[in-house]
Design brief:
This protein has eight helices and 14 strands. The protein is an alpha/beta fold and about 270 residues long. The strands form four sheets. The protein has a six-stranded mixed beta sheet, covered by helices on one side. Strands 5, 6, 7 and 13 form a four-stranded antiparallel beta sheet that branches. It has a two-stranded parallel ribbon with strand order 1-4. β2 and β3 form a beta hairpin. It is globular and about 65 Å long.
């Protein structure tokens, strides 16, 4: 073989190496195990695992920007989620309120807050509670909540009697206790959750606003998770949450629920 032919063969072989083989599969995405607690419509606990607004948003907006695939664990209790993060059983969770205990346990919180929620109480229509100006207004009323769930300082006043439930489907369980008269009100970190659960269960509620600051929810990571994971998340979240993109997901879910089960005028109203 001449030197010219040998050089040509080498060039063709080099070019062939640069062209991917026909039908070659792309490199598999990094899989991130995610833990969540149920909080409709953000996270729903269904027969097929976690679903809801937050799951859809993270799968479609956050994961592609991070170049990963999220593996969603079945919704768990808040206490188990805390333990799963501390032990490293899950790498992260998309929403978690910051508390002194969680920080002391080593849970790492993202620097920016992208989700703010306004807490409220859900009561039955015939409840004497129509407004809340101070913790004294809740004296003598048993308020349902969930074990290990964070609360704003307002709700930690000693005059407020809390009944914490240790259930994955805590929101439905608390509304059932409310209907049975076992509690006088149910605390929620946002108004969407009681609205959704009420529509699903046919419960008539009245929503009472609380004079307290909104709840800040952070992305949170296991103590042993690589720092690079949090950095990539923060960069992706900054882009994904921009321009109220997350609100569009929430409003779409709310509209779908209203169309599926239109509420009556007095089914869910604000008490001022």
């Amino acid at each position: 073989m001449s030197i010219r032919l040998m050089c040509g063969a080498v060039v063709l072989l080099s070019l062939a190496c640069l062209v991917p083989a026909h039908g070659a599969e792309p490199a598999p995405l990094e899989v991130i195990k995610v833990g969540v607690f149920a909080m409709s419509p953000f996270v729903n606990a269904g027969p097929n695992g976690a679903s809801g607004v937050l799951v859809d948003f993270f799968d479609h907006e956050i994961a592609p920007r991070m170049g990963v695939r999220f593996q969603w664990e079945r919704p768990m209790t808040t206490a188990r989620l805390e333990n799963s993060l501390v032990s490293g059983r899950v790498a992260c969770t998309p929403i978690l309120a910051k508390t002194a205990w969680r920080e002391k346990a080593g849970i790492v919180f993202a620097g920016d807050v992208h989700i703010h929620l306004e807490p409220c109480l859900a009561v039955l229509p015939d409840s004497p509670l129509h407004s809340v100006a101070s913790p004294a207004d809740l004296a003598g009323i048993v308020v349902g909540w969930v074990q290990a769930g964070a609360l704003p300082p307002f709700m930690l006043d000693k005059r407020i009697q809390l009944d914490r439930i240790g259930s994955v489907d805590w929101s439905s369980a608390n509304l059932e206790k409310l209907k049975l008269g076992r509690i006088g009100a149910a605390y929620f970190s946002n108004r969407y959750t009681p609205q959704f659960v009420a529509a699903q269960t046919g419960t008539t509620l009245r929503i009472v606003k609380l004079p307290t600051q909104g709840v800040k929810l952070y992305g949170a990571f296991a103590p042993g998770a690589p720092r690079s994971l949090a950095v990539r998340y923060e960069r992706a979240a900054g882009e994904a949450f921009a321009n109220d993109r997350f609100s569009l997901y929430v409003h779409k879910a709310v509209l779908a629920q209203v169309l599926a089960a239109p509420p009556k005028v007095d089914e869910l109203q604000d008490a001022h």
